[in-house]
Write a structure and sequence with these properties.
Elements lengths: L17 E5 L3 H13 L3 E5 L2 H11 L3 E5 L7 H9 L6 E5 L4 H9 L4 E4 L4 H20 L5 E4 L2 E4 L4 E4 L2 E3 L3 H12 L4 E3 H8 L8 H15 L9 E4 L3 E4 L3
Parallel strand pairs: 1-2, 1-3, 3-4, 4-5
Antiparallel strand pairs: 6-7, 7-8, 8-9, 10-12, 11-12
The structure holds calcium ion.
Length: 243
């Protein structure tokens, strides 16, 4: 897979999941395309934001890999435009100096991020997580019970449990858990969580969030000091880790 190919090519068989790759760095794009193709995934590749939007609409990909620094359009704008019509996972690929834009892209609806440089193993692990999400979303979108590892929430009964044991939660704790469970695996920014749980007037009250996240860890984690599920993303927010 080292030969030159024109940008915007579709490879591999029609049954395999389709990944849209938007990255202007030629070497990086070639490496990601080769890595994905080795996993028998189909890849549509583009080197601009405008082309990414057009190709997403044309192919309806199962996963979108989006470089934040595209030449014609910033990744936040691309994310916003994509979220007008698609729920496909968006995995941001960013450079170290793009921290603020990364948070804005997550606020705009991106699911996750990888900071360059990253290893092939880490990259493929994330790709697998998000492709699984896409498959699950299309198969059980009507279910009222969600499970992540030992955690379980029954939305119809408003009951949470861990390892089969029911856990009593206050209304706010329940709402916070429900928000994290509905977005399992996704990095949620402080602002997104505060908006969902407390409402639009509270999006700067990160200390509320810290307190309640601590309470959930106390009730649901085997070792609250070293959480398995409720993971802090420093400077950004939290992620409910799936495994
Ligand atoms: Ca770039």
């Amino acid at each position: 897979m080292n030969g030159e190919q024109p940008a915007t090519t579709v490879t591999r068989s029609a049954a395999a999941p389709l990944v849209l790759l938007a990255e202007d760095d030629k070497g990086m794009r070639r490496y990601l395309r080769a890595t994905l193709s080795d996993q028998r995934l189909r890849v549509v590749e583009t080197e601009s934001g405008a082309e990414a939007l057009a190709q997403a609409a044309a192919h309806n990909p199962d996963l979108i890999l989006l470089d934040l620094g595209l030449p014609d359009m910033d990744g936040i704008h691309v994310t916003t435009k994509l979220r007008e019509w698609t729920a496909a996972p968006i995995l941001i690929i960013s450079a170290r100096d793009e921290e603020i834009e990364k948070v804005a892209a997550l606020d705009a609806g991106a699911n996750d991020f990888l900071t360059k440089p990253f290893g092939t193993g880490e990259f493929l692990a994330r790709v697998r997580v998000w492709l699984r999400h896409t498959q699950r979303a299309s198969s059980d979108s009507t279910s009222s019970v969600l499970a992540v590892g030992d955690l379980r929430i029954d939305f119809a009964r408003r009951v949470a449990s861990v390892a089969g044991r029911e856990v009593r939660l206050t209304p706010t704790q329940y709402k916070l858990l429900a928000t994290m469970m509905r977005n399992a695996g996704k990095v949620l920014t402080h602002e997104q969580i505060l908006f969902a749980v407390w409402g639009p007037a509270y999006t700067r009250e990160t200390q509320y969030l810290r307190v309640y996240m601590g309470q959930l860890r106390q009730k649901l984690e085997a070792d609250p000091a070293r959480p398995r599920y409720f993971v802090t993303e420093p400077g950004i927010g939290y992620r409910l880790r799936e495994g």
